[in-house]
Design brief:
Aminopeptidase, Rossmann fold, 7-stranded mixed sheet, 27 strands, alpha/beta
Length: 750
């Protein structure tokens, strides 16, 4: 950026390294600093931040780049250099923010044309600067009514807390939360901002205390004895009308300028010039000079800017209750509160209730402490024993209670059913639609049982007055907060359209795909996930043991294994169907097992693969026998379509077994020709199916006319056109969806 000492700048606090470092240390802000040089000398600096509010979607619609204090410009900066700086700002922030706003605290009228040429609109904004050169000047300009209010407030017992404790700062923050929730349109910084400022060398938080209670305050930035800025003035003015806490807090900031010998007290804005603001009248009474230091606004994405201005439906705030404040419940309520929803927790544990109501989590988990503390300060989180109150004051109830195992491996669902009874009892007296979300891991069918219990207890009708939704969680301990806020997908199991729409609205801010499925699919998916994860762990460990026996780096092996996203780490093979076959999988699995055996390494998972595959083939044979037909038509002989490879084709085992039991069999496979068979393929047929010549058909239609039972064993495209006659059975081993509507259709795994 050139030699910084070439140009002397009259910098404000917001244009300093101290400010940039402060912004950079806050997780909810992304700080930036840009500069421009001319002839090797620094001529302009822009310091600002991108504020990231709430969840992913809210951030998407509210990303704003704020340059507080405006650009820092040398007196002799050229129009060309300023234009280059503004162009650079736009280009660098284009993908990160919806708009850029320069909030100027000094006169930039000389540069309006340059800003306008670079797509920055000038918006007139007013401000008050208070001359604090002496106490006499301050008293002269101060309105008489304010003098009386200030004297009266302190006379009645209010005191100024100049060096507050962090707990007192939290009390002040709660006042700010209420103010911003009810009256201020812009988002309030999280408490981390105030905590970090409180700990800084330049930050000042001045509080007003009355009868041992914090009733107002102001945040100030003071650096190098220059301007003092009034940030975040707030007070409980309605509760303490005679004390006037906001007036006392503002006076505290002005008085501090005298003690610090700071010439100007900047009140940081009095609204747009063409609009009336009550706060402008309030600030005017302190005797400041009214100045117009307009803002510059560049809209980078007009569509999203417009949406953000009018508000979007998906950002609607909801009232939510959580039954169970353990791991799943604590993380869930914290993250939903962080997205702006109001959450109430219910638990039988008094200790958990106490922790939540003190702003502490009930679990140990990275990041959850800050979230619970922050959202408690924001007034979005509380806990109670009263389930009647919780249901009455919420629209959605999440059930996150435990489902421990019984001695025989089943789930103990008593806590689920007990919670259902409580919710049902509460719904008796409640009007309006209510959603019960089962977050706990439960067997398929549990949600419908819960719905029946609630119907019986409440006298209300499922999917009319309430809905039960299955919404499994996929959280890893240690990364649960990140997993919740950044899920790969969200699964919503429901048969109620209204519930589906509301739950979609709730989860839209996460920005992840939302899969709406049947309740039973949603209930089952968690078991599939966890079982597969267990399989992955044991598989990797068995590979590790074999590698160790050979002196091979197992981690390097698995690193390479995971690089294959086409087969290894992909949806490929994850489609229930028939047994595996072919030339590679059976042979190489057997070889790996043999390696392990020779090295005296136990591999029970690897050993189980072949037996499970064999069992799947035996299951198919039993199905065919159960149908009772003797004329069997087989469509597909090779282990997959488009090849004549019959090595270890599982259907050959099935045909061999059926033939041995006296079944008549005919086969059609357009890729298989006896005349062309050579090598291993030929020897397989000679050994396993020496009568194939009699079975193999050239015409599929004639086979279909003859067969009583049709077996489809690979996914050749022409099998989609099969037409099934009355009385004919179809056993599908690969899932040809076009046939599922046919009478007599049976899928092996679906």
């Amino acid at each position: 950026m050139g030699r910084a000492d070439c140009t002397v700048f009259d910098s404000q606090f917001f244009q300093t390294k101290e400010c940039y470092d402060f912004y950079s240390g806050l997780s909810f802000l992304e700080a930036f600093v840009f500069g421009v040089t001319e002839n090797g000398c620094l001529k302009g600096i822009v310091v600002g931040y991108i504020q990231k509010d709430g969840g992913k979607l809210k951030q998407y619609f509210s990303r704003r780049a704020i340059v507080t204090g405006g650009a820092l410009l040398a007196d002799d900066i050229s129009d060309k250099a300023l234009s280059a700086l503004l162009t650079y700002c736009r280009n660098k922030l284009n993908k990160k923010a919806i708009y850029i706003e320069f909030r100027n605290f000094k006169d930039y009228s000389l540069y309006r044309d340059v800003f306008r040429e670079n797509d920055f609109e000038y918006i007139p904004h007013l401000n008050f600067h208070i001359d604090c050169s002496s106490e006499e000047v301050i008293q002269k300009n101060l309105h008489s009514s304010k003098k009386r209010d200030i004297k009266a407030g302190f006379r009645k017992g209010a005191i100024l807390v100049d060096s507050p404790s962090l707990d007192e700062v939290r009390e002040y923050y709660r006042i700010l939360v209420d103010l911003y929730r009810n009256k201020v349109k812009t988002p309030l910084f999280p408490f981390d901002f105030f905590e970090k400022l409180y700990q800084s060398d330049w930050g000042r938080i001045l509080l007003i205390k009355y009868q041992n209670q914090i009733i107002g305050g102001v945040t100030c930035s003071i650096l190098k004895n220059k301007t003092l800025y009034h940030w975040f003035v707030a007070g409980l003015d309605e509760r303490f009308k005679s004390i006037r806490p906001s007036t006392l807090a503002t006076w505290a900031a002005i008085d501090r300028t005298l003690k610090e010998r700071i010439p100007i007290s900047d009140m940081m804005g009095a609204g747009k010039a063409d609009e009336n603001y009550g706060v402008r009248d309030f600030k005017a009474a302190f005797g400041g000079k009214l100045v117009e230091y307009g803002r510059f606004l560049c809209i980078l994405n007009p569509v999203l800017y417009h949406i953000g201005k009018i508000g979007v439906k998906i950002l609607k705030r909801m009232n939510i209750s959580f039954f169970g404040l353990g791991y799943v419940g604590c993380v869930g309520m914290g993250c939903l509160a962080q997205n702006g929803h109001k959450v109430i927790g219910i638990d039988i544990s008094s200790e958990k209730i106490k922790k939540i109501n003190e702003g502490m989590p009930t679990i140990v988990e990275a990041g959850i402490d800050e979230i619970i503390r922050e959202q408690h300060l924001q007034g979005r989180i509380r806990a109670t024993h009263d389930y009647m109150e919780a249901v009455r004051e919420s629209d959605i109830s999440f059930v996150c209670v435990g489902t421990p195992s019984t001695n025989n491996g089943h789930l103990n669902l008593n806590y689920i059913y007990q919670t259902a009874e409580e919710i049902g009892e509460a719904l008796k007296e409640k009007n309006g639609f209510h959603i019960i979300v089962i977050r706990s891991t439960v067997f398929p069918g549990t949600n419908k049982a819960v719905g029946k219990i609630i119907e019986d207890m409440s006298g209300k009708t499922r999917n009319v007055h309430f809905a039960v939704v299955s919404n499994p969680e996929f959280l890893r301990e240690g990364t649960a907060v990140n997993d919740y806020m950044n899920p790969p997908l969200t699964v919503i199991g429901t048969d109620c359209e209204k519930a589906r729409d509301i739950m979609t609205e709730l989860y839209a801010p996460m920005g992840a795909p939302i899969e709406t499925v049947s309740i039973e699919v949603a209930e089952m998916i968690k078991y599939v996930n966890n079982s597969y994860h267990a399989l992955k762990v044991t598989f990797a460990n068995e590979i590790g043991r074999v590698c160790k026996a050979y002196g091979i780096d197992s981690h390097e092996v698995m690193r390479i294994f995971c690089m294959d996203k086409q087969l290894n780490i992909s949806p490929y093979y994850f489609k229930p169907g028939f047994a595996y076959g072919g030339s590679c999988l059976p042979k190489d699995l057997k070889a790996l097992k043999t390696m392990a055996h020779d090295l005296y390494v136990e591999t029970p998972v690897l050993n189980a693969i072949e037996s499970s595959n064999q069992h799947h083939m035996e299951n198919a044979i039993e199905w065919i026998q159960a149908v009772g037909h003797k004329k069997i038509g087989v469509l597909g002989l090779s282990f997959k379509a488009g090849t004549d490879d019959m090595r270890n084709s599982p259907i050959i085992h099935v045909i061999e077994a059926l033939y041995g039991k006296g079944y008549e069999i005919r086969i059609y496979d357009r890729s298989v020709s006896l005349a062309r068979l050579i090598g291993k393929n030929k020897s397989v047929i000679e050994e396993k199916l020496p009568h194939l010549n009699c079975m193999l058909q050239d015409d599929m239609d004639s086979l279909l006319d003859w067969a009583e039972t049709i077996i489809i064993s690979n996914n050749d495209e022409i099998f989609k056109s099969v037409r099934v006659r009355d009385g004919q059975a179809v056993i599908d081993l690969v899932r040809i969806k076009e046939l599922e509507k046919e009478n007599g259709y049976r899928g092996i795994c679906w």
